[in-house]
Records
---
Amino acid sequence: MPDIEPFSPRGMFHEGWTAEVNDYAIACGWALKGKQFIVGDVAGGLFAFEGDTGKIIWEKENTHSGGLLAMAIHPEGEIFATSGQDGNVQICNCHEGKVIKTLDLGKGWVEHLKWSNDGLFLAIASSKKVYVFNEIGEEKWISEDHPSTVSAITWSNKNELATACYGRVTFFDILNNKTNQKLEWQGSLVSMELSPDGDIVACGSQDNSVHFWRRSTGMDAEMTGYPGKPSHLSFDDSGKLLATSGSERITVWSFIGNGPEGTMPGELCHHAEPISSLAFSNKGMLVASGSRDGSVVASFLKKDGNGDPVGAAFAGDLVGAISWRPDDCALAAVNAKGVVNVWKFKVRTNLFSKGFK
Amino acid sequence: MSIKDKVPVTILTGFLGSGKTTLLNRILSEEHGKRIAVIENEYGEVGIDQGLVINADEEVFEMSNGCICCTVRGDLIRVLGNLMKRRDKFDYVLVETTGLADPGPVAQTFFMDEEISSEFTLDGIVTLVDAAHIDQQLGRSDESSEQVAFADVLVLNKTDLVSDDALDTLESRLRDMNRMTRIIRAENAKVPIETVLNLSAFDLDQILKRRPTFLEPEYPFEWTGVYDLDAGKYELMLEEGPDPEMSLVALVNQGESEEELKDGAESSVRLYAEKANTLEPGNTIPYGDHINLKLEDKGNKSFILNIEIPTKIGLFTQHTAEEFNMKVIKSDENKEIPFNTERFWQAEHEHDDEVGSIAIERFGDVDPEKLNTWMGRLLSEKGVDIFRTKGFISYAGNPRRIVFQGVHMLFTAQPDEEWGNEPRRNQLVFIGRNLNEKEMQEGFDKCLI
């Protein structure tokens, strides 16, 4: 049996800790370099737990009237931002959860928040406008109205912000208030991810397809045939693999060689119900997926995008968000019932081993 | 998740000034035990009194394939996507569209987007019309006729501003455009809440219970009487009536069951399509022929019916028997023979509007493959003009009836209750613009086994 690898990937979820928040958990993330785990629920409750034990550090209720919509933790992990239906953004301190600054952006829902990689800027999308503030909440830039509500934002480099809406992706140089590039395509773009080098733009579209652009060459491609709209996209840290999902299946496109155009994508079929969250590990080819059925699976991928599950667990209900700890040695999932699950994660492969620290 | 667990959604449409906000306020302020979340596109001057109200700008998203049937409402997907995480806060959703909204994309959103359709179910479309102005609006804009065409319930509002005669005319115009809608007259949007919420309007059984004849096709005759006659000579006697003449078809061996009556009606429709032979009073009525009775003379007029062997005679008459006080009399005994059975039919009349309804009703089974091919082609060619489709079908070999419904070319079909002892039949209604009834009926007939 020559196909059998002598040392195939092995990994698993080990018991970590669980906790509960007050409502449907929609956002989570690791702060203070993994020492703290912050969860936001749909009603506007915020909860900070000790990363190792799950002991509650602080909690707050009703931070946004009408409800919470987004949360983003600063890359340094000392502060974080939240936004909600009240049209406000709060920048808070992670240690005590104290509000450092409240930004009032008007009546519209504030649905998207993204810190730039160096942490100098916070991008905020509310209705048809996008705003950029600095760490202490000073306004640095405002976009014109987009043609529709902005559906995704992400930083392509430290001064360049990409926005997606109906019909186009736009790149703004926010320091010089300039539009660097517009990628147009008639379709409702519901999600967007950029490769880490900022060259590949991938958008999920309402018409059940994924559209790619390569900014350097101007080439674009459309990947059709998804059973549902690909709301979930994640690039691995090398920018070679893009995991996408709009159903219970995960489709992985490999950008190695001439791909993914004309190649067969990898397929991961581990869940009974559609994927509700998807995230590559911070380093390496591990992708974690959470589903509406409450299952959480980590898969180890090969270069062609195919792969095998290396660990699975049950989170109890629809997985609202998942998050790898910065060192990838723990995975957290929060669910629609407000339950928080953190598993220690260990994996050993013939290529690298990690986790057994 | 079964349909019972899904949150019902009512869509409220209607032109500016038709009274949507008044109705909305009424719904929100009344004690009905429901917690209603409202998504509002119209920023009217009248505020919404209470409840969980979310304002959202209408965002119509067309797809790259250019198909209008795939067009959805991005704002609804966004807002409902968020609301589904707060299901403990409400148990009903009302969407108030702008006056100019096309209801198509709103309804399609509940079919096209998997995330939305897994959590929400479209309960019904309620359209308000301003009785004083709808006549002009229908002439001027496509949106208003589409809002009428899509409606499960039409609230004919502001009736106090219009005469009863004008209301009747208006109601019959609206009925022509959309034969499956329920029309409710109201002053100041005062309608019982249960007529607009929890309609299960996409559930065909409910519609049939409310309006059992909504699927009825139209016939060139209004009435049928079946007479059980022995051999002998009879007179068909008519008094003066609303018309100086009347068309009639007489059939021998006419059965009395619903199925037999419908068969007789189908034969008569074909005969009615032929040119009528005129009969003067005193002439003998031939069987299986389209004839036209001359009724100009004053007083009673008689036509002869000759029966050689005992049979049941079916008279399919242009007007009802009552209108002419029509009687069958056995000549030698001068005795009136009453009918055994009578049946009224939905009478044909002129259609002025481009938007209208087509109903197809046929007994028997269809071949699922042929039906799929036919429907597929029909919807791909005419999907843009077909606003709503509802009906049920008898698939050969399937013990359950197949219920289906659609919006433009989106279409779902699912097995429903078993047929049991009921005669197997097919009923379909299409509401759309410039639909060719004959062509569609012929197309459907080819799918029958």
---
Amino acid sequence: MDKFDKLSGVAAPMPLINIDTDMIIPKQFLKTIKRSGLGVNLFDEMRYDDDRNEIPSFVLNKPQYRNAEILVAGDNFGCGSSREHAPWAIKDFGIRCIIAPSYADIFYNNCFKNGILPVVLPQEQVDVLMKDAEKGSNARIEIDLDAQTITSSDGEVFHFEVDAFKKHCLMHGLDDIGLTMEKVGSIRSFEEQAATARPWV
Amino acid sequence: MSPKTLYDKIWDAHVAHEAEDGTCLLYIDRHLVHEVTSPQAFEGLRMTGRTVHAPDKTIAVPDHNVPTTLDRANAATMTEDSRIQVEALDTNAKDFGIHYYPVSDVRQGIVHIVGPEQGWTLPGMTVVCGDSHTATHGAFGALAHGIGTSEVEHVLATQTLIQRKGKNMKVEITGKLRPGVTAKDITMSVIGKTGTAGGTGYVIEYCGEAIRDLSMEGRMTVCNMAIEGGARAGLIAPDEKTFDYCKGRPHAPKGAQWEAAMDWWKTLYSDDDAHWDKVVTLKGEDIAPSVTWGTSPEDVLPITAAVPAASDFAGGKVDAAQRSLDYMGLTAGTPLSEIKIDTVFIGSCTNGRIEDLRAAAAILKGKKIAVSRAMVVPGSGLVRAQAEEEGLAQIFIDAGFEWRMAGCSMCLAMNPDQLAPGERCAATSNRNFEGRQGRGGRTHLMSPAMAAAAAITGHLTDVREMM
């Protein structure tokens, strides 16, 4: 997994609540058996018209946001389907960090498995960064995962919380499965004990 | 011993390892797999030379992509990318030695209907699947939730998940439901009250007389939509109805093991003085047959209400509601019962079980549809066979419905069952998101009885007028 430590980039504003994973990546793109190549279809139905032409008013089609690396959004980002194609598409587009007041659980977890940092901030701080993002490519937002801070283009610093284990894995690009397999002894002994306690399982 | 909730009890029985910071390895008893969220996980195993840790606890079935037309044995009914995904599951199931129900098997169906039907899902278990509607299995008092593909790979390789414990939320539905009100109306009304993020970070336990009175099918409908309220898992404590449903299923325990299982299962309830982080209570008698008007499952109203205005809401919901009204092509103030419907879809892991088909058929018997198309997609081949045996299939066909083969179908429209732009659908599924049932398609969620009523009149209809 790609490491995440610091990021300084353009943020795209999406001031919508309940952005669901069907919006992020519609189902017709779930038929892939690969993880890569989904960026071109990120927010597909908002981004292209029926003839596959770009809709100029959509944020990621605007010149100043075409290379955005950060997304600022409303409450409950990533709700709905568990499809990991959503973070795959976001990452493939080039976005490495999302800033929102809240996320759906499954999406939030999926981000960390893919080198994406989902930052939770109070609504009023998201509002400040949303305004910052609306300034376009002249306003770069800085994220420092180690220090757990976000700095607006005006130099305003916001602190964010993140689970220590998730932070550690993201900063070092660690493979969860490898870490868990180091604990195979605990898993085996649990299985032996469960086989006695609940043999029908 | 300190009092525990049902969630606490199941959690405690499955912690295989706990780190100092509280991060746990939760052991997984059943891992359900389908074709859309698993290919990359199996590929990951191959690339790292890993195997499936517990193939006996891993069950696969293709459901999302499969055609539901009668001629689906013909490979030409699938697009090439869909066929590749289903074939990948065929191959992965064989190569890794996991239980498998291929499309040709009569037991094939939606993974969340097949699991309980075959007795894979049992009380007190941990159940996961790369699908958010895994919450369905919570109806058995199993801790069940959706996971992403990286976690699918993690469970395949280790039979565990890295987890932190969630919070406890109690949703109590007191008293009796009124006639015409179903499990679907309960679960939609709860989301209407708590919002789509009201359950985020929680495991919900549904309880109260109205929940106890539900059949297992109804309880599955309630738990299925826990995720639409933000909760990864919903639970209902097992009781005699649960045990009766499980007994004799192909993979349920038998003989002495059944007795041993029952001894434990009977301890699976929340203690009287257990701690709840959040409590929501609804009166059963206050719940009405409900429909959604917007593009979020929280956009729920009784069928007797009118389309709201964006200005009825506050905060970020004002813009979201206006966007929904525009997308849905609705005008504030229009009575919901005057909204005309083009298409009716009965099926999905929410409402594709036998009881759902019975409820719809009871309304449709001897009537004809007044919509341009209507389809019934049974949740599994066995549900389909039973409905044929009970004469329900003929009622649907006589009314003008298409009688389909089992699969996810128009719930997420990955197969050819899709809405056209602007087409308005009365659906028994679980999500009314923009484009969910097809680009530009407009979805109104409701119970099977309400969908049947809309099919007959051609507009959203209060099913109580037909009873």
